[in-house]
Write a structure and sequence with these properties.
alpha+beta, 38% helix, BirA Bifunctional Protein, domain 2, 26% strand
Length: 503
C-alpha cells in the first residue's frame, strides 16, 4: 500500500510539473506572436539533406551548405553560442548557433526554444574539435512549438503502459522503438515481394461480414443502419479467398486486419494483421514448404541470417523444419498416448492424470481434449521451428480429412519459441462433408460454444461449383515481427495496441 501511495504521489508531482511547463511554453507562444512570429505558421520546409545523410557523406559535404529540419532533443548554451541536437527520421545531428552569425534578436529567440520544438535551418557542415559532425547555422526558422515537454529518459523507458498509450512520445524518445516499426514495414514488403515473384495475386476481401467465418473465434458484432442488418467484423478472410480460387484465381493472398473478440495478452490483441495464402493444385505439404521457405527468406532479408536470437535463445530458421504429428508430440512431450483413445471418458482420464480439469459434456470430444493437452504440455516446449501435423477433425472444420485416418485432417501449425506462428492445411473441397462439418459446428454453437463456426450456405454453394485441390496458409504477421525484432510482447510491435480505458 505504501508503495502504491508513493507511486501515486510521484505521478501527481510529475503531472503538476508538466502543467507548469505547459503554462511557461504557452507564454512563450504569446511572446512570439506579440513579436509578429507565428510558431505554427510554416506551411512547408524544403530540406536538402537528412541527419544520417550528412554524417554518412561528411567528406563530400564538409564546408558545404545544407538545409535540414528536425526536433530539438538537447540544448547547451555557452554565452553567445549554443549547441543543440536535431532529430529527424534518419537520426540526430548536432547544430551550432552563434549570435554573430544569426543576429542578436534571432539568437535571443533561440535561447527561448525548448526541447521538443521543431526547427528548420540552413548552415555549413564542419567537424568540432571533439570530432562531432555539426551544422553551423546561418539562419533558422521555428516550424512548430512543442507545448508539452518530452518525458525524462528514465520515464520514457520504464513506464511501459504510458509508452503504449502515447506512442507518438515513445517514438520520439526511443529510437529503438522506431527501428522496430521500420523493420515491421520491411518484413511486410519482403512477404509481398516473395509472393508476387512466385505468381501470387494480392487481393482484398470484405471486413464487414454477414457471417463470421473462416476460423473458430468469437466475433465483434456491429450494425448497418441503412440495411437494418447485423454484421460481424471478420475473423478471417479464408472463405472469401477460397471463393476466388473457385472462380479461377489460382494463387491469391491477402495481407490485412482480422478482429477477434478475445482476451488481451503478450501474444494476443483483438485487432491483428494476418497473411492468408491459397494455391490451387497444392496441398498441406506444399504449404509447409512455402511457410518455412517464406519465413527463412524474410529473416535473411531483414536480419541478414536465418539463425536469429530471440529472448536470449538461438533459433535456426533454416529449412527444413522438424515435423511431428500431434499424437507423437503429445507422446514425446506429455508422456501420454492418445492413439488408442476412442471415447471422451478415456481422453478425460488422460488429461486429468496430467492435472487438467476435464468435464464430459455435449461440446467435449476426444479431439478437443487432445488439443487442450497439446496446448498445455507440448506447445511451450516447441522452441526450435517445428511443424505439428494431423489435427483432429473436430477442431479443424475447414481442413480435408486424411484418407487413411478419417478422424484427423491434413492440417499443420508451425511453432517457434513455444508460440503458434501459422496455420495451414489441405483445404476441404467436398461440399457434402463441409455441410456436415458446419452442421456439427452449429450444434456446438447451440450447446454454448461461442467460437464454433456458423453455417455458410453461400460458401457451400461455391464449393458445389468445384474447388480444385487447394493448399491454404495463414501467418500471424504480428508474431512474426515479434520474432524477427526480438520483441517479447505483441504490444511492442503494434503502433497503437488496444488498452483498457483510463478512468
Amino acid at each position: 500500500m505504501k508503495e502504491d501511495a508513493h507511486k501515486a504521489d510521484n505521478e501527481a508531482q510529475r503531472l503538476s510539473d508538466v502543467s507548469q511547463q505547459v503554462l511557461i511554453r504557452r507564454q512563450k507562444v504569446d511572446k512570439l506572436r506579440a513579436q509578429g512570429i507565428d510558431p505554427y505558421g510554416a506551411e512547408s520546409f524544403a530540406r536538402t539533406h537528412e541527419a544520417a545523410e550528412i554524417k554518412d557523406n561528411f567528406p563530400e559535404l564538409k564546408d558545404r551548405e545544407v538545409t535540414l529540419a528536425g526536433r530539438i532533443m538537447s540544448i547547451r548554451t555557452h554565452g553567445k553560442a549554443s549547441f543543440a541536437h536535431l532529430q529527424d527520421a534518419s537520426g540526430t545531428i548536432q547544430i551550432y548557433v552563434r549570435v554573430n552569425e544569426v543576429g542578436e534578436g534571432a539568437y535571443n529567440r533561440f535561447l527561448d526554444l525548448d526541447i521538443g520544438d521543431i526547427l528548420g535551418l540552413t548552415g555549413k557542415v564542419f567537424k568540432t574539435r571533439r570530432g562531432e559532425i555539426t551544422v553551423a547555422a546561418h539562419n533558422y526558422e521555428l516550424l512548430s512549438k512543442a507545448l508539452r515537454p518530452l518525458p525524462e529518459k528514465w520515464h520514457g523507458l520504464k513506464d511501459v503502459e504510458l509508452r503504449y498509450r502515447m506512442r507518438y512520445v515513445d517514438l520520439i524518445a526511443n529510437p529503438e522503438v522506431r527501428q522496430v516499426f521500420v523493420t515491421r514495414s520491411k518484413i511486410i514488403k519482403g512477404i509481398r515481394e516473395y509472393l508476387d515473384q512466385r505468381g501470387f495475386l494480392e487481393v482484398e476481401t470484405p471486413m464487414l461480414n454477414l457471417i463470421a467465418g473462416g476460423a473458430n473465434a468469437r466475433p465483434f458484432v456491429t450494425y448497418h443502419n441503412a440495411l437494418d442488418t447485423q454484421l460481424y467484423l471478420r475473423i478471417a478472410p479464408e472463405l472469401y479467398l477460397k471463393r476466388l480460387v473457385v472462380g479461377g484465381l489460382e494463387k491469391v493472398y491477402e495481407l490485412n486486419r482480422n478482429f477477434r473478440n478475445e482476451g488481451i495478452s503478450t501474444k494476443h490483441n483483438p485487432e491483428y494483421t494476418a497473411l492468408e495464402v491459397y494455391q490451387a493444385y497444392a496441398d498441406g505439404e506444399d504449404m509447409m514448404n512455402l511457410t518455412e521457405d517464406l519465413i527463412a527468406h524474410v529473416a535473411q532479408e531483414v536480419t541478414g541470417s536465418t539463425v536469429i536470437t530471440y529472448q536470449g535463445q538461438a533459433l535456426d530458421l533454416t529449412p527444413p523444419w522438424r515435423r511431428l504429428t500431434m499424437i507423437d508430440a503429445i507422446r514425446e512431450y506429455g508422456g501420454v498416448d492418445f492413439a488408442p483413445v476412442e471415447d471422451t471418458a478415456t481422453a478425460c482420464q488422460l488429461a486429468e492424470g496430467l492435472g487438467l480439469k476435464c468435464e464430459e459434456g455435449p461440446t467435449v470430444t476426444v479431439g478437443k481434449v487432445m488439443a487442450e493437452v497439446f496446448d498445455a504440455f507440448v506447445e511451450p516446449k516447441l522452441i526450435q521451428p517445428t511443424f505439428i501435423t494431423e489435427y483432429p477433425v473436430e477442431i479443424s472444420p475447414l481442413s480435408k480429412r486424411m484418407a487413411d485416418k478419417p478422424d484427423f485432417t491434413a492440417r499443420f501449425e508451425p511453432f517457434i519459441y513455444g508460440r503458434e506462428m501459422a496455420n495451414g492445411f489441405s483445404e476441404l473441397n467436398d461440399p457434402i462433408d463441409q455441410r456436415e462439418r458446419f452442421q456439427e459446428q452449429v450444434e456446438q454453437r447451440k450447446a454454448g460454444d461461442e467460437e464454433a463456426h456458423m453455417m455458410d450456405e453461400d460458401y457451400i454453394r461455391a464449393l458445389e461449383y468445384g474447388l480444385p485441390p487447394t493448399g491454404g496458409l495463414g501467418i500471424g504477421i504480428d508474431r512474426l515481427v515479434m520474432l524477427l525484432t526480438d520483441s517479447y510482447s505483441i504490444r511492442d510491435v503494434l503502433l497503437f495496441p488496444l488498452l483498457k480505458p483510463r478512468e
